[in-house]
Structures are given as structure tokens and as C-alpha cells.
Amino acid sequence: MMENLTGEAHRPGRIEVVCGSMFSGKTEELIRRMKRAKFAKQKAEIFKPAIDTRYSEQDVVSHDQNVINSTPVESSASILLLSSDMDVVGIDEAQFLDDGLVDVCNELANRGVRVIIAGLDMDFKGIPFGPIPALCAIADEVTKVHAICVKCGALAYVSHRLVPNDKQVLLGEKTEYEPLCRDCYQKTLQEEKTKNK
């Protein structure tokens, strides 16, 4: 491994996945890793799905309002085209991208690019979400981060949807979702079933 002047080792190609529920710090961790790469004078670019315009059309913004400039893309194929000379590629909200993202990340890593992906591993029903599960399977490193359950303070398991909408993709924030542990999630589902009878 070669080190540059700032001491950050240039790593060979690899895939790193940061996953978990909403409000768990996934984007925060992605931004931290990308800023370190830029500080180490590595060529780095971060991408996000064009549909994610919650905080900004252009930037990646964490719930804590940390910001990093990004390139919005419509499909995973665009990432391959736009990152030909990069050392590090970051991808936020990867669950909203198509399944071709798995091949794109593999190709980039095989070229010697460090790929850092952040995304939800499960949807609001606790079902594996988009390409994230497959990315976890091929990743060199997986970091599962956890929010705190808003009902009991345990580690959160799922992002529970607070609004009546069954679409899998519903962009939202604290008024639409809450992090719950497995136990509180099951109790909440029971309460909702009873209420809707």
C-alpha cells in the first residue's frame, strides 16, 4: 500500500457498505469517510439518486445538517460513466437506485476504486430494500449502524412509517418515520391492527 503526504493509505479497490435504519447516522458516516479521502488528496466524488431532494437537489445532507457536494444520478450506469478517474466513490441513499448498482460497484472496485455506499437495508415493513442486501453480500466491509428506539431507548431495528401510505418509496423525515426496536415495532403493529378493526 502506498501512502501519500497526508498519511492516509491509498487502499486497493474495495466496497464498504454503511447500512441501518433511518436516523442511524449512515449519511453522517459516509460524509466523514469522504471528507477524510478528500483531505488525503484522493480524487473523490459522491453520488445520490436524483429523486432524493429532501434537503437539497445537489448536496448530500445528513439529518444533523452536515453537507457535502454531490452529483445526482438517475441510474447506477451514470455512476460508472462519471467516475472514470476517481480514487474514491461515495453513494448515498443507495436503496433508491436500481439493482445494476451491484455490478457497477464490483466493476469500480475491480478497477481499484474504493466504493463507499450508504443506505437503508430494510424498508418500513422490515423487508430487504433495493440493492443494499446484495451489496452487503459482496462488500469487503459492512458497518451496520443503529438509531435509538423512540419508545424505549433500545437499539432501533426498523424505520416505522407514521403516515398511511403503502408505497415502498416515500421520501420522508421525522414526521413520516420513527426508529423502533424489534419489540416496540411488533407492539406498534399490533396496536395499529387493533385500531383498524
Characterization of this structure:
The chain has helices at about 25-40, 75-80, 100-110, 130-140, 180-195, and strands spanning about 1-5, 10, 15-20, 45-50, 60, 65-70, 70-75, 90, 115-120, 140-145, 160, 175-180. It has about 200 residues and is α/β, with parallel strands linked by helices. The strands form 4 sheets. The protein has a 6-stranded parallel β-sheet, with helices on both faces. A hairpin with a 5-residue loop joins strand 1 (about 1-5) and strand 2 (about 10). The longest helix is centred in the N-terminal third of the chain and has 14 residues, at about 25-40. It is elongated and about 55 Å long. It starts with a strand and ends with a helix.
What fraction strand? 25-35%
User: Helix coverage percent of residues?
Assistant: 25-40%
Order of helices and strands: EEEHEEEEHEHEHEEEH
- Shape, principal axes of CA atoms: elongated
Average pLDDT over all residues: 86
Largest sheet: 6 strands, parallel
* Structural class designation: alpha/beta
Strand order of the largest sheet: 7-4-8-9-3-10
Based on DSSP secondary structure assignment, what is the total number of beta strands? Answer: 12
Spatial separation of the terminal alpha carbons:
62 Å
How many helices in DSSP terms?
A: 5
Low-confidence stretches: 1-7
Integer-rounded radius of gyration: 17 Å
